[in-house]
Amino acid sequence: MIEHHEKIWWQDSWIHGWRREAGRLTFFVEVHLMKDHPAFEPFDKKKYFACYKTALLRVSGLEAIRGLPQDSHSLTWDEEMEEFEDVGEIQVFDLDPSGRALHIETGNAPRCPYPDFDLWIEFGAIELVFEDLERPFRSGT
Prior knowledge:
Blueprint (H helix, E strand, L loop, with lengths): L7 E14 L2 E10 L17 E10 L3 E3 L5 E2 L3 E2 L4 E2 L3 E8 L5 E7 L10 E5 L2 E6 L3 H6 L2
Antiparallel strand pairs: 1-2, 1-5, 1-8, 2-3, 3-11, 4-10, 6-7, 8-9, 9-10
C-alpha cells in the first residue's frame, strides 16, 4: 500500500516517465502533497502553487497491465523550464481497496509524444518512495 495515499492530491500530480522491467513497473512522478501529509514542507507561494515532491511509484509482482504506451519513457530535463518534462497530468488515480489493482488516466501534457493514456494494472505490491529524481536521471540509472 501507499502510506498516506489519501493525503496526496493525485489529480494535480504528474508522471515524468517510467521503466518496465521483469515483474516491475516504476513511474517517475511528482506528487502534490496536502498539508497533513508527513512529507509536506513549506514552499515559496510566490514561486510554486503547492508542495510538490518527486518520487518513485514502484509496482512489483506485475500480474497484468493494459494501456502502457511503451515499456519505458526516459526522464527528460527541460533546461529552460528547470524541471522534468511532463508525460501526463494524473486525471484519475484509483487504487483498489485490496491494494492490488490501480487505474490511472492522464491528460494535459502538450509536449508528450503520445496521446493521453488509460492504464489498468494488477500487481502484488505498490510503494511510493520520495527521491530526488535528478540523481538517477543524471547518472543514467
